[in-house]
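Saturday, quiet lab. Running sequence design on the structure tokens for the scaffold JK sent over.
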């Protein structure tokens, strides 16, 4: 049957549909529907998600066995730590000692590499080794390099007559205590000239020089210091290397005892740490030509050991030797050394006993039982008129001639 609609009915129906399509759903209703759908979905998912324990029922026997074994091992390790804490700490200590041993081995290999490199580049140390007909490094506890000059023969004699041993005693000290002492000097501008021959004659008499392949000069002290460390590590396998000036009084026993306190540590830099002003004025003592590198006028240097005496450990001396060709030198040698070490993981030890004053300062400390490692006058950067006064300082502040033989380290 065909339904017949009147035009009026058709128009009414069309108008009704248009009104229905014209109604819009508000944003709030849509947002509410979305939130409701999300919550319903979350609730459904949570109810349907299996618990962790449910997974075990779906594992094949082999997987279940591995899971149980892993759980048993974790429980066993936990109980072991709780029951035997000392055993665990023992293993930790053994591991730490093994790491330290490996570190020492690496340091030794680096030192040997430095020796080979230095010998190839400069031929340093050949004289010392060939005189003993051996190519192996000589073991020592400390190598003390006493910086000296061609014109300082009387200073050297003042040391030999006071705190520095000589002759057979010097050899005995090196053999029995591992304490090596050498006057450190380079060559004259006229190689083989009268100055060189005078040192050769003095060395033949006393046997207490270390000659460097270096032209002597006050403004070359930084280079000389670098060459001393680079050369010393190619000859002696020592735990420490010390640089000291020839106008400074030293108590050897106190020096060795002080170093021995730090022998188990690596990368040690010991001395009287200071931070003096950077002097930009030309013509003044200790003028720094490269003052602009240290910032604004009036700035101070970074912390470093004063140049009269300081000590570094073997690994630092090795570092200097390996990198000798690229280490920058400043006008002042103590600043140069500090700059070589400033960017490394180095322990700076501020040891005030290494910079006592001359009497009455060191004398008062000696009477109080606080013997000094080294004594000098700050205003002279050494003992003022050291040739005349060294014996007096030694008498007032010395530890006794036999002290070094009684040091146990």
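Result came back. Writing it out in full:
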């Amino acid at each position: 049957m065909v339904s017949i609609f009147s035009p009026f009915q058709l128009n009414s129906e069309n108008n009704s549909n248009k009104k229905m399509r014209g109604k819009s759903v508000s944003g709030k209703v849509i947002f509410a529907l979305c939130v409701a759908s999300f919550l319903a979905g979350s609730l459904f998912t949570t109810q349907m998600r299996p618990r962790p324990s449910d997974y075990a029922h779906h594992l094949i026997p082999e997987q279940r066995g591995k899971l149980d074994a892993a759980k048993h091992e974790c429980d066993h390790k936990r109980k072991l730590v709780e029951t035997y804490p000392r055993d665990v700490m023992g293993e930790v200590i053994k591991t730490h000692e093994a790491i330290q041993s490996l570190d020492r081995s690496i340091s030794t290999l680096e030192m040997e590499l430095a020796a080979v490199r230095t010998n190839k580049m400069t031929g340093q140390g050949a004289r010392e080794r060939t005189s003993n007909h051996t190519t192996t490094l000589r073991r020592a506890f400390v190598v003390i390099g006493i910086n000296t000059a061609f014109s300082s023969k009387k200073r050297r004699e003042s040391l030999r007559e006071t705190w520095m041993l000589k002759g057979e005693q010097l050899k005995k000290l090196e053999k029995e205590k591992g304490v090596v002492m050498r006057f450190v000097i380079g060559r004259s501008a006229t190689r083989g000239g009268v100055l060189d021959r005078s040192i050769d004659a003095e060395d033949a008499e006393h046997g207490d020089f270390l000659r460097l392949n270096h032209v002597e000069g006050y403004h070359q002290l930084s280079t000389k210091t670098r060459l001393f460390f680079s050369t010393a590590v190619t000859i002696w396998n020592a735990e420490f290397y010390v640089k000291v000036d020839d106008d400074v009084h030293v108590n050897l026993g106190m020096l060795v005892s002080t170093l021995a306190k730090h022998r188990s540590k690596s990368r040690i830099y010991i001395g009287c740490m200071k931070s003096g002003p950077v002097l930009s004025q030309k013509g003044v003592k200790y003028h720094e030509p490269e003052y602009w590198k240290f910032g604004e006028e009036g700035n101070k240097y970074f912390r470093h050991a004063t140049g009269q005496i300081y000590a570094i450990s073997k690994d630092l001396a090795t570092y200097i030797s390996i990198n000798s060709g690229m280490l920058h030198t400043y006008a002042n040698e103590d600043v140069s050394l500090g700059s070589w070490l400033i960017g490394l993981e180095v322990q700076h030890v501020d040891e005030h006993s290494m910079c006592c004053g001359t009497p009455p300062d060191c004398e008062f400390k000696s009477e109080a039982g606080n013997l000094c490692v080294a004594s000098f006058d700050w205003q002279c950067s050494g003992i003022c008129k050291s040739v005349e006064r060294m014996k007096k300082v030694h008498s007032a502040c010395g530890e006794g001639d036999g002290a070094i033989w009684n040091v146990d380290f």
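Notes for JK: Residues 1-23, 52-56, 122-134 have pLDDT under 50 and may be disordered. The beta strands are 138-147, 179-187, 209-215, 236-245, 249-250, 268-274, 304-313, 347-350, 374-375. Ask whether to fix the surface positions before the next round.
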